[in-house]
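Bug report

Summary: structure tokens for AMP-dependent synthetase and ligase differ between web form and batch submission.
Environment: batch mode, default settings.
Steps: 1) Submit the sequence below via batch. 2) Compare with the web form result.

Sequence submitted:
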Amino acid sequence: MSTLRLVPGTPDAVLSALAAVLDGSGTPFAPLPDDPAAAARARQAIAPDEPLEEDCAVVLTTSGSTGEPKGVLLSREALIASATATHDRLGGAGQWLLPMKPYFVGGLQILTRSILAGTTPVLAGDDFVTAAAAMTGARRYTAMVPTQLSRYLDTATDALRSFDAIVLGGAPMGPQLKARAADAGVTAIPAYGMTETGSGCVYAGLPLAGTELALDDGRILIKGPTLFSGYRLQPALTKEVLQDGWFRTQDRGRFTDGRLEVIGRLDDVVISGGVNVTLPAVQARLVQHPGVRDAAVLGVPDPEWGSRVVAFVVGEVEPAELRDFVAEALPRTWAPREVVQLAELPMLASGKVDRQRLLDGVR
């Protein structure tokens, strides 16, 4: 078995190690987060001193937004398949701007696409406008999370318009953000995927070439060449989620007019006072309020209700008004029992909401 090499999670270090494994000259590697605490958690998931499983080029750690991080084994073939299918969907290879951390799959795959396209990626750094202006490719792409797009729409609309496509991943693209991007003339494409699928594998509800989708009692199943090889040193978990070539995700979905619509996670339904509450539906309703810029909704263990629905809201709106607003479109029993107003939602380096930090603040 191969040994696993740890590399710093900087763009230059990851780009060099990635180019070597893609051309067959390098050894499997794992990029470490730049935050010391996150790096320590990643080391536990990666277990670099243990023998490495076969069919692995890169080991990435999941962000741990809903639990302990896991080491995800990605093969050279999966990385290439994802990058190739993405370029095919977008209309051809091009130059990419990197506004994301390369030790997460979204950032790593920007570098993979750049290597395969023979182009030099541009680093966004702290000045997105200047970085976008430095792009020289005939076709220009970038990828980011919805929170980034929302902020850039406030400050860098012209720069956003300069891209042929902006791929959005890591979180759902809400209707308000979709409308803002369209009104600004920005080509933003919502993507669904995760580390286990080699980054986004469904664009605007339609699977990339080679990817198959199915539903099992609402659970989203994915098959295709971009899938991961397994979880690092967790054969039982790997066997549980990879069955007959299908990856059994933890997400619920449905098909609408032939397109996949992601409804939420399987654990996003909580029982509060004997009533089943679908948390993503409450969150989607909250962000429709003109005074709400962003929101997250979680179920918090409660001795009286079993779970109480708590809304974390960015915006200055009276809690009673928000509860009434939710009740206008959804059952009143779904309205949040508690509203926590924040200046902004805490985010992980991956761009996902730090759900654990929110929970820790209200328990």
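Above is the batch result. After comparison, the two runs are identical; trailing whitespace caused the diff. The chain is about 30% helix and 30% strand. The CA atoms of residues 205 and 259 lie 4 Å apart.
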